[in-house]
Design a protein that fits this description.
Length: 239
């Protein structure tokens, strides 16, 4: 099966190893993985900031860059959710509308692609840790992802998964929300980390590095021993 990677801006710049680990897992499951080096942003930051015309230009480039891909897979439910839920609005009554409808059927978040398309729940990962899982808003509400990541984690040898209280509550990042409303954002991070610490977990795992980046910053500021880890990094462990 041929897969085209979409690597979000912040993953490319700040967490490239997660992208490489995603490739590692996809290739182990038998996928032929390709990466278009011309790719840039999905357009979400500009759109969320209110710059719809500028976002449309970036989104148009995304459509061209991934026009011929059989499947598009990304380590970010945030970007995938944006494309699925907002591209139709951006290109409403535009010539690209049918192209948008088509691409929305071919783009998947990483865990979703494993469980829903490849029908894989065990990739042979081994990681001896105690962890809790954070449902990102984008995964849970925009992509309807809930059980898939947990099924994948349940098959990681040595990993003990413990659910935290209020697991579906936002971590407080929300992109520019964290900048515009930093006090509220920090308060939400505090709540999420407090619930995670109560589980005695060593790690918080999620599908979204944007959430994990936000939480990790708060954790380090408080000198907690809790760590964060993307699902792809977990699944690439031990082999």
């Amino acid at each position: 099966m041929k897969v085209q990677l979409f690597i979000p801006c912040f993953v490319d710049q700040l967490y490239p190893q997660t992208a490489f680990n995603m490739i590692k897992v996809l290739e182990k499951t038998g996928c032929e993985v390709d990466y278009n080096t011309n790719q840039t942003c999905c357009g979400q930051p500009a759109f969320n900031a209110g710059f719809w015309d500028e976002a449309r230009t970036v989104c148009s480039k995304f459509l061209k860059d991934f026009d011929n891909a059989d499947y598009i897979v990304a380590p970010s439910a945030s970007c995938v959710g944006f494309i699925r839920n907002y591209y139709e609005k951006i290109f409403e009554n535009a010539a690209q509308y049918n192209q948008v409808k088509d691409i929305c059927k071919r783009i998947y978040e990483f865990s979703e692609f494993l469980t829903d398309v490849l029908k894989v729940e065990n990739v042979g990962a081994v990681l001896n840790i105690k962890a809790t899982y954070h449902d990102s808003c984008a995964a849970l509400r925009e992509c309807k992802i809930k059980e898939g990541p947990r099924k994948l984690l349940s098959n990681v040898v040595g990993l003990e998964l413990v659910e935290m209280n209020d697991v579906e509550t936002c971590c407080g990042f929300g992109g520019t929300f964290a900048v515009k409303f930093d006090g509220i954002s920090i308060g939400m991070a505090d709540q999420k980390v407090t619930h995670a610490l109560a589980t005695k977990a060593e790690y918080i795992i999620s599908t979204d590095l944007s959430c994990l980046m936000h939480l990790d910053g708060y954790i380090k500021g408080k000198n907690f021993t809790l760590k964060t880890m993307h699902l792809a990094d977990v699944l690439a462990s031990g082999w």
